[in-house]
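Our working data are protein records whose layout never changes between entries. Getting from the letters to the tokens is the skill we practise here. To make this concrete, we reproduce a full record directly below:
***
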Amino acid sequence: MPTYDWPLIQHRSGDSIESLVATLLRREYGDARQVNPSQGDGGIDILRSTMDGLEIWQVKGFTTAMTDSQFRQVKRSWERFVEEHVTPGACQVARYHLVTPWTPTEERIAEFNSLTEGVSFPCQWDSDAFIAGLADRYPETMRRFTHGEGVLEQFISQMAMLASSPVERGESLTMLGAIEARQEALDALRDVVSDSYRIEHGTRTAANSQGVPLPSDDDPAVYHRMTYLGGSRWRYESLVPRSPDAVELDPIRLNVEFLATPGTPEHEAIRAWFEWGIPFSDAHARTTTVGGPFSDEPIESTVSFIEGARSEAPPLYLRCITSDGESRFRMPLIGAARTIGTRTGWLRLVVDTPERALNFELRFRQGEEADAKARMGNVDGRNPEAVRDELETLLGISAGDVISVETGNGQSLMRAHGAVLPTALEAIHLPVARHLTQLQAHTASMLVMPSITETTDSQFHYLSFLASIYGGIARRWAWTEITLQVPDDDAGAERLRRVAVNAVSGGT
């Protein structure tokens, strides 16, 4: 006698028995993957990799005594599997399973054994007892499949009552232990929300009150929802796929309708993102999460897009060629950003010279020549001597030279004639680098370039003044009054007395 009334379940459920079995197998084996039928399953519904090869399941939703026509379906699936995967040696098979809710008769088992004989791997027919065992291990999946969302709501009510009941205290139960018991009930409740994703949750403290604690690059979650709690604290809920194909079977997407007023800076920032993929912050939008356990009604909020992890790009070089065709220099460029327009596919590259003295932004549209823009970079914190050398090289460019950005094999991405560099490079950046390099020889401290944009005129003139002194230019001051503090020790006091007497008498 079957453990479940499979024909009734098949009739009552809005989904197929094949889908139920596939879901239970994916819950049982975290590394199991469901084959997409639209791509042609080749006689395979579920597979997983093992040390001995692939373990394969072919699922048939036959709930009553199998007819000859149904067995011919099993035979065709087996022959397709052998033809596409076994005969050509496309994969090493460890075990093959045929799964049906109906328990086969001895005659059908004999037919199955005859069908599958001759292969080098074991084949077996799993039926009612096998599926029932999976259903017992994952009752919430079985109840949801059998009774729909109604049973899930009932389960939620039961677990919520436990979680919200008063916390007991006693000699054997601490307050923290009681809270943990309630939390375990809530965790169990979260675990039944989705067969495709686990919901991990908790709180995090950001490094500052403004920043969102972003996940690490190796975080297994594919979706994060964070709620600000105040005081740099955030509550997070993260969706971790239960199986490798969870994202394909239950995809998650975020529909965004931007609400920015045309002509505003916010609207222009969104347009730049559509065209060039340039990140932006805090744009007003109406968002809707579709798919996964976080599916919800549209909400109005602010949306920000940040630059993701940079992919490896081919090396680029800045080349300068004189009017006579001679190469003045070939300088490597360092990638700073690489973005692609979300609607246009247009490419934007931002690169720096090695010491960041110059910054280039290159924009590529399909079928058009590249646009290039050069501007002063940020040399803050760089080695003054290296910055000086780079600036002297760049400032050697003359009006008749040809500037190009090229790939490692010499292919030119853009060319410019008569390029004119920003005047501040020669008027401010280079003198600061030279002055600090000169002063470096007279101090043990490691001097670095300042932020040029934050340097005031008085600071620049004072630096020039110090450099001139160490360069050998004498400076004279007329004193009308001087105060000296006499050291406590006798030897120090005597040395100071001699210096003072010598100064008063006009000595050096």
Q: What stands out?
A: The first helix runs from residue 6 to 12. The longest strand covers residues 327-340. The chain has three domains: 6-147, 169-305, 316-431. The radius of gyration is 37 Å.
